[in-house]
Every structure is written in structure tokens, then in C-alpha cells.
Amino acid sequence: MRLGLLLTLPVANAFECSRAAFQGILPTNISASVAYATTVPENSTFQVPESNIAFPTSPVLLRRVCAVQINITSSASSAYSLGLFLPDEDEWNERLLAVGGGGYAGGIDFVSMVCPSFNNGNGYKLRTKAAGVCYGFAVAATDTGHNSTLEDGSWALDKEKLTDWSYRAMHGSVVLAKLILSAYYESSSLSFSYFSGCATGGRQGLKEIEMYPDDFDGVLVGDPAWWSSHLQPWTVKVGLNNLPTTAPHHIPPELFPVIGVEVVRQCDPQDGLVDGIVSDPAGCQFIPEALMCGSNVSFTSHSNASCLTGPQIETLYKIYGPYYETNQTFIFPGLLPGSENQWTNILGQATPNTIGTDYIRYFLFDDPSWNVYTYNFSVVHAADEAQPGNSSITNFDFAPFYRRGGKLIHYHGLADGLIPPESSDYFFRQLLKTLVPKGITVDSFYRLFHVPGMEHCTGTSSNAPWYFGGAIQANTLGVRPGTVSGTPGFPDAEHDVLLALMRWTEEGRAPERVVATKWRSDTLLDEVWRQRPICPYPKRARYCGYGDPDDADSWECL
Ligand SMILES: *[C@@H]1O[C@H](CO)[C@@H](O)[C@H](O)[C@H]1NC(C)=O
Ligand SMILES: *[C@@H]1O[C@H](CO)[C@@H](O)[C@H](O)[C@H]1NC(C)=O
Ligand SMILES: *[C@@H]1O[C@H](CO)[C@@H](O)[C@H](O)[C@H]1NC(C)=O
Ligand SMILES: *[C@@H]1O[C@H](CO)[C@@H](O)[C@H](O)[C@H]1NC(C)=O
Ligand SMILES: *[C@@H]1O[C@H](CO)[C@@H](O)[C@H](O)[C@H]1NC(C)=O
Ligand SMILES: *[C@@H]1O[C@H](CO)[C@@H](O)[C@H](O)[C@H]1NC(C)=O
Ligand SMILES: *[C@@H]1O[C@H](CO)[C@@H](O)[C@H](O)[C@H]1NC(C)=O
Prior knowledge:
Layout: H1 19-25, E1 32-40, E2 44-45, E3 60-61, E4 65-75, E5 78-87, E6 95-99, H2 110-114, E7 138-142, H3 159-184, E8 192-198, H4 200-211, E9 218-222, H5 228-241, H6 256-270, H7 310-320, E10 323-324, E11 330-332, H8 344-347, H9 354-364, H10 378-386, H11 399-403, E12 407-413, H12 422-435, E13 446-451, H13 497-507, E14 514-519, E15 528-534, E16 541-543, E17 555-557
Parallel strand pairs: 6-7, 6-8, 8-9, 9-12, 12-13
Antiparallel strand pairs: 1-4, 2-3, 4-5, 5-7, 10-11, 14-15, 16-17
Helix pairs in contact: 5-9, 5-10
């Protein structure tokens, strides 16, 4: 029984937060060792180990947790780490949340773990009435079995490490985390398990559903990098389309903003409302020739011009257009108009992004000296054949997850300049093609939301409402890393997609829309500027034609 305020003060658990205590409960059929288990006091900074080069930021913790890191041997040449933040028992919401990684990063993303481990008082079905922030989860993450930064895939020469990154580390971490929770929390037990991840994290969530449908009850995936064998070759191909930098067809990064301005000029009004936001980029008939230079611009002066030459326009078509093999076989969609602000990552360097080339060198051909200029379609065929690490999703039969009552929310920022949003639409169609013939009503367990104006996982360059509590989004809000959780000021399932997922999973109320928010300053969280619904695909938000367009209720999902 919980009575009055006194009982809401943090109470130490009977289970000690110490290395020895955790070491004592590890199962004997795995080889694992506890690196540390330490109590992090309320309002203090959790010092991330200096050796974590992937996610070096040390978050501020607003509530007390037991922080644990466990090293698990996965083969003779590989081991992965599980990181856990465990709130005190009376602050625990009896749920597990596993958070995903990003790119090829090898390291535990502690900043993404910190906030979900606290409850927000007004949150969802919390056991405690303690005031505070966040949700009250026990939170888990894995380093995915190697040590590297986001764009470095050279570790993948070791195929055991590759298997860890592809799926083994996440699954093993979830299984062990559940076991630990049952020992750590002595008088309460786990009721639901969730996942939240973006990009590689999104791929991890889908991979879990594909291979281990029992691991999670609810899965939240953003901008998923789910099709490794095509996405990574496309990353190389689209980069090569704009190279070498000395060629007449090269579009220098200085021109990306010029293109972006023209996209807004043409595509913003086409969606029915002039607000600087390209809400329907796939529906825009963008005419790049509007950027064509007149006779007074030469090749040598084109980098500081505000127009494009014929060969540059051809490159632009290749960036936006889908990538087909010569015989019309579809390989991958192109980037959408409105993504130009993020192009420097994969189009603005002297070589294609290593997210693409490292896949071919270290995942696929095991040849660090592979010359990127020898790239051709045969790479895609080789990748499809080999499926290195089995990192791609290839089995769209998510029926086992559906049958156990699992729920999947998937979203993609339409201004994503790293992973083409239409790869998410393609995934959506694969799921329909596989499950509809089985008599499954797909939208009863899976929904995809497009987010107009949102870049890769977080942020916007067009002041579009982009924030809804998606994976890693809170890390970019507020001034102190990790102190923001949920949707500040709107701690409810209408404005917070993780709460929406919980409501769907636990109460069966499917999200018909989620309201996204933009503050005047997303850092200061000063004043709410705009709120708009994001809608389950293929519906999209339409302005009703009257009312304040910055008010979510002036929009409908149609
Ligand atoms: C932590 O900070 C909050 C907000 O400033 C404060 O109310 C609370 O008393 C602090 N707790 C401790 C243990 O210092
Ligand atoms: C990761 O590698 C860097 C060097 O690249 C090293 O400084 C660091 O200690 C390593 N971290 C771990 C966890 O091994
Ligand atoms: C994990 O354990 C393995 C041996 O099983 C060791 O080689 C590796 O350095 C350890 N990793 C960490 C991060 O402690
Ligand atoms: C572009 O810049 C170069 C030097 O960076 C300069 O010589 C040239 O005149 C400039 N062209 C235009 C059209 O401004
Ligand atoms: C053409 O398409 C098929 C797939 O339909 C593929 O297997 C084949 O290798 C492709 N390429 C060529 C050059 O025929
Ligand atoms: C593509 O590249 C592979 C390997 O570099 C080479 O063997 C093959 O001949 C190339 N194919 C074409 C059509 O150029
Ligand atoms: C990938 O999947 C295939 C087919 O199921 C299997 O034979 C292979 O062992 C798997 N490889 C890895 C690394 O999981």
C-alpha cells in the first residue's frame, strides 16, 4: 500500500547495488563478468567511462539509479557489454526499455538511457506518485560487441563481432536484463518490455521482431537502416554520383542550400500551405531546371554561383531519383526534396561516406583496399547473396509478433538526408504483401508515421514540429544532456510516441495520430511555436483551411 508523501521517498532496495551481488546472480551457462555496479545519487552526473568513444557524453541523473555494466562473452573472439540503469524499486514502473544504437557505433549510449529510467509523475500507469521526470523504466543498452565510432566499420572483419552488431548482442542483452530484473526487484515483477531506437537502432528493433518476437511487447523504430545490403551500396553509389570533386557534374556543398531554397519555393505551396515546410515531398513535382545557370557561369566559377549547370542538374536527378539496375530492377529509393540541409554527410565529401564503403570493405569483401571507384551493381548482388551478419531484415513474416499481441510503431523524418524515407514505405509494403494474404489486419499491430520536415532521427531546418519523444530525440532538447524526457509540458500519449506505444500495447488503443512539437528554441524549451499531428501512413496531415496552422487541431489525418 502506498500512502501519503513519506512513502514516496526513495527507499534502498534489499538487493545491493554491488559488483559481487550482480556477479552472484549471473546464470552459470554464460561467461559473463560484472565490470561495475554503482549507485548514482540523485542529481549527480554519471561519469561515462573515458574508453567509450562512441557515446562519450556523461549524462546528469535526476533520480537515483544503480548503474551496471556486464561483459558477456559471445564467442572465442568476441564479447559484448550490457549497460543497465535500474531505478529504485518504488520508482520502477515494472517495465523494461531497451534502447538502440546508431551507425556502426560500438559503445553504450548512456545519455539515451538516463531519462527513460525516471518517471514523470503524470506518465503512464506508474506505480509511484513521486514527482520527477521521465517514465520509470529499467533501461538497458548494449555496446553491440565492439569499440568504435559511428562511421567506422573496420571491426567487422571479425565475423563474430559482426554477428554481435547485427543481432546477437541486443538479443543476449535483453534476455540477461530480464533475468537481472527478476532478481533485483524483489517484490515486484516485469509486466511489459519495450524497445526504442533510431537508424541502426531502428534496424535492431525490426531485427528483434524478425528473429526473437518474444523479446518485446512494444517496439518503436525510427528511420530504420533495415536493408543493409541495399542501403549501404546506395550510400556509395549516391556519393559517387557527385564525385570526383573536379568533375563538371560535381555539385559543391556550397550549392546545397541554394537547391534547398528552390525546393521550398516549389514544393512548400504544393502541399496546400505556405509555411516554409515541405510537407509532401514525395508528391512534389520538383523541376530542377529552374536552377539552370545562364550563359555567364563557367565551370570554374560554379561553386560560388547560385545556379546549376546542365551536368549538375543531371546529378541532382540521380540524387532524388530511385536507384535502378540497368534491367529495371529496383535497388533503393533516392533522397526526398527537402533533405538538402543534411547532404554534406553523404554527398559533400571527397569520398563516399564510410558507412557505405566500410560495409563493402569489411562486412562484404573483407578487403580493406577495395577501390571505391570500381563500384558497380555486382556489389549489390554480392551483398544480397552474402547478407553479411544477416543484418538486413529479409523475413517480413511478423505474424509471430502480431499473434503474441506485439505492437510496432515506425516513423521516418521526411527531411532525412542519410536514409531515404521511402525505404520505410518499401518496408511497409513488404509487410503488407506478406501479412495480408495470411488474413492479418496489419494496422491492428503496425503503423508507420511520416514526419514532415524532420531530419535524421531528430531536428529540423525548416522549423517543422519534429519532437514527439522518439528515440534519442530528448538528447537534443534542453541544455543539460539527459535531463529532458517525454514531451516537456505534454506528458501524455497524444504528444509522446513512447506513451502512445504503451497505451496501444497495454490497453489496445491504437494511435490515430501523434502530435509533434516545435519550440521557439528547442534548447531553451521556451515557448511552444508549432504543434501538428503526424499521421499513420498512407494518411497525411492536411490543414483544415481555417484556424491557427500552428495548432494541431487545425489539422486532420486524411
Ligand atoms: C534534486 O534536484 C531537485 C530539483 O532541483 C530538488 O528538488 C531535489 O531536492 C534534489 N535532490 C537532492 C537529493 O539533492
Ligand atoms: C576504444 O578504442 C579507443 C582507441 O580507439 C581506446 O582509447 C578506448 O580505450 C577503447 N575502449 C574500450 C572500451 O576498449
Ligand atoms: C570483455 O571480456 C573479454 C574476455 O571475455 C575481454 O577480452 C574484453 O576486453 C572485455 N571487454 C570489456 C569492455 O571489458
Ligand atoms: C568565385 O570565386 C572565385 C575565387 O574563389 C573568384 O575568382 C570568382 O570570381 C568568383 N566567381 C563569381 C561569379 O563570383
Ligand atoms: C537483372 O535482374 C535480375 C533480377 O530480376 C538480376 O538477378 C540480374 O542479375 C540483373 N542484372 C543483369 C545484368 O541481368
Ligand atoms: C563489376 O565489378 C566486378 C568486380 O570489380 C567485376 O568483376 C565486373 O566485371 C564488373 N561488372 C561490370 C558490368 O562492369
Ligand atoms: C544467416 O542466416 C542463414 C540462413 O538462415 C544462416 O545459415 C547463417 O548461419 C546466418 N548467419 C549469421 C551470421 O547469423
